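not sure who needs this but someone in the group chat was asking about ATP-binding cassette domain-containing protein from Candidatus Ornithospirochaeta stercoripullorum so here u go. i didnt clean anything up, its just raw.
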Amino acid sequence: MPQIVAEDVSFSYGDGDVLSHVSLAIDHPSFVVFLGANGSGKSTFVHLLDGLLPLKRGEIAINGMSLKDRNALYDIRKEIGIVFQDPDSQFVSPLLYSDVAFGPENYNVDEKEVEKRVDESLLLTGLEAYKERLIQTLSGGEKERAQLAGVLALDPSILIFDEAFSMLDSNEERKLRSYLSSLRENRILLMITHDIRATLDADRIVLFSDGRIIADGTPSEILQDTEMLREAGIRVTLPAMIAAEIRKLGIETGPVVTKDDLEALLWS
């Protein structure tokens, strides 16, 4: 049974729907990207998934638990961890170790298990040497890894990245992409983004536009339709546009997003 099921979900903040008749199912494990321009509805849908917004129209179930069942919300939220765009908004303690430990402690996790989770999370995010550091002394990229460590310590089965990691440099981003690939072996990863460069390692892309899902498929299927992406308000990279012109000549390219992708294609 799929771990996430949404059926005919709509939502409005006032006049007019920001989500309209959205339905999808996501199995475990998988790495899924919700791609869409600002205002497309992707973040609103995610905030419905974790109960930050009230579900009034349609149905959403997480591991078989309905979001309309108020008694199930606590258990549902234990299944979901969210990494937001602004890491400073998630820190609750000035000391890194204490901040990462805060989540499992508040779920009444055993003290030894808390220590184990914190140490593992800091090791996995490359921050094990910083455990006694004040968060305010960390760089922007280190703060983003710190908030990820805090979420990982909760051991969620669904891990959501909402426009996260904008502060990482290219080297840190490559390391993180490799790490995310290992994480998806035993959980659902949801990446919420407007940037097609963040989609390359995904198993599946769900494209949002004007509150609806307009496409749902593999990166190979979605990223090669550059016209559809532009119509959805997605900025298409120059290498992707060049690859689109090559395909018009009858040459298969596969998904091309970055300069490295294009160079690999041209030298193949």
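also The chain is about 35% helix and 20% strand. if thats useful
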